[in-house]
Structure formats: structure tokens, C-alpha cells
Amino acid sequence: ATLRMMANWDLAQLETNLDRLNPALCLLVCNNDSVVLPEQGEELARRVPHAQLHSIDDLGHLGHEENPEWFAARVNDLAKAHGL
């Protein structure tokens, strides 16, 4: 199901409209990710208005599985900071 969902993404349209995204975007970027490179997160943060980039040392592509407690705490902190 995940592969089918990803195969149907329209990434060209999304990329074209990145500068029009209104909601706050908080990016958690793992610095040891060799699949989605930290530089890609940095580029996305530059292109999306009001984006916040949070770099995480010592975690890789599956950082949320490597340290789920830490990730859950950060997501909760970010949600509270945005009134959610």
C-alpha cells in the first residue's frame, strides 16, 4: 500500500507549489540519514515559507524508530508550540 501511494504522488506539482504552502512546517532532519540527505531538508526549509528546520545528531533515516521516545517528545513539544 505504501509503495502504491508513493507511486501515485505528483511530486512535480508539489515542488512547483512549495512556496505557496501556508501551514507551519517543522522539519525534523536526522544528520546521519543517507536516504533523505540533510541537505534536502535544508533546501526544503529554504523554499517553504515559515518552515523550521530541526537537525538531529546521531540518528539516521529511521530516527523515529531508533529513538521513538525522543521523537515523540519533540513532536509533542512542536505541536504545543504551535497551539495544537
How large is the count of helical segments? 5
Range of helix content: 40-55%
The side-by-side strand order for the widest beta sheet comes to 1-2
Overall geometry: globular
Helix/strand-derived category reads alpha+beta
Stretches where pLDDT falls below 50 for ≥5 residues? none
Instruction: Give the biggest sheet.
Output: 2 strands, parallel
What are the secondary-structure elements, in order, as H or E?
HHEHEHH
Mean pLDDT: 90
Report Rg.
14 Å
What proportion of the residues form beta strands (DSSP E)?
Answer: 5-15%
Instruction: Tell me how many strands there are.
Output: 2
Distance between the termini: 29 Å
Report on the structure:
By secondary structure, this protein is of the alpha+beta class. It is globular. It has a two-stranded parallel ribbon with strand order 1-2. The protein has helices spanning 2-7, 11-16, 38-47, 63-66, 68-81; strands spanning 25-30, 51-56. The longest helix is centred in the last third of the chain and has 14 residues, at 68-81. Helix content is 48%, strand content 14%.
